[in-house]
Amino acid sequence: MQSKTEKRAYRVTEACAAYGLSRSTIYKLMKAGKLKTVLVGGRRLIPVEAAEALIAGGAK
Description:
45% of the residues lie in helices and 18% in strands. The chain is an alpha+beta fold. The protein has one domain: Orthogonal Bundle (Arc Repressor Mutant, subunit A). Strands 1-3-2 form a 3-stranded antiparallel sheet.
């Protein structure tokens, strides 16, 4: 039996689905510096902590 590991970061499309936000909203938040991301091997990832902090604090 495999144990299910928790995600530590989302791709942009996964964050959209997980939080009910559009791609354009995600990119606007990233550009405004309100959503922290990391670049790994050319792939933009959103750490779960950053997404949760945004949701908890709201985008102001």
